[in-house]
Every structure is written in structure tokens, then in C-alpha cells.
Amino acid sequence: MVIKHMIDETLWAAYSSSCFDFKSEMSAGDFSIITAWNPASQQLPESVNCVNNKRLLKMISNYEWASVRVGDTQFKWIEESFAVAVDLETSLRIAREFGQNAIYYVRQGQLFLYACIDVRVDNLGALSKRIYKKLE
């Protein structure tokens, strides 16, 4: 049986090449990176994205979390996101509630990209190689 991936290859490649700018350190060993910006990868006005992220922040406020910007390698495109110390299944459930196609999950320093709308997962290597800007 062939498993069909619902996220097109160009979009998956863009997700796979993202870099991260953490506003503070995460002390948790394993955590997810989730956003409420641009559900289903459909660009929304920044004001709508900010409202959505405020709703997401209310949902994750009982967990350890940190702000993180996710962007392309030059950070010409970014999405405000959150690193959240929560298990993978909870992360996927939360992301699905906000219409997201995928999340990142960090396990023992390794960065994984998990689809929310099918079963695809890729190991993207060490998170440390994807940091856009060192902590200030």
C-alpha cells in the first residue's frame, strides 16, 4: 500500500529548511515548536495571525514555553511561534486545532518535522545547526 502525503513536496521542502531564533532558552529536553500563523499555509494578515497566536498562548500557558521565530535561511519570511514543553501527541492535537499542516518536535537535540494532516515525519538533524541567531 502506498501512503499518500497530503503536503506538496515544495511546501514540505520549505518546512524542512527552516531556521529558528529563540527568544530564550528552553530547559526542557524535549519540546515542540508550534504556531497559529497562516493555517493550512494560507497567508493571513499579521493582525489575524497575532490574534490566533494569542489564543494559542492561552492554550499553552500552563506548560513551559518560549517565544521562537521560525523562518527561511535569510529570515525574509518568518512566523512567530512557541517552543512548548509538551509531548508529541499533545503538540499535534494543539496544532491541528489551529489548522496547521506540520510542527517541529525536538527530541534529545534532534529536530523532527511531523505532518499534522498525514503520517509523514522527517528527522532534520541537530537543532543546533538550525539556529538563526544565537541567544542574546
UniProtKB/TrEMBL annotation:
UniProt superkingdom: Bacteria
Pfam families: DUF3293
Protein name per its UniProtKB record: DUF3293 domain-containing protein
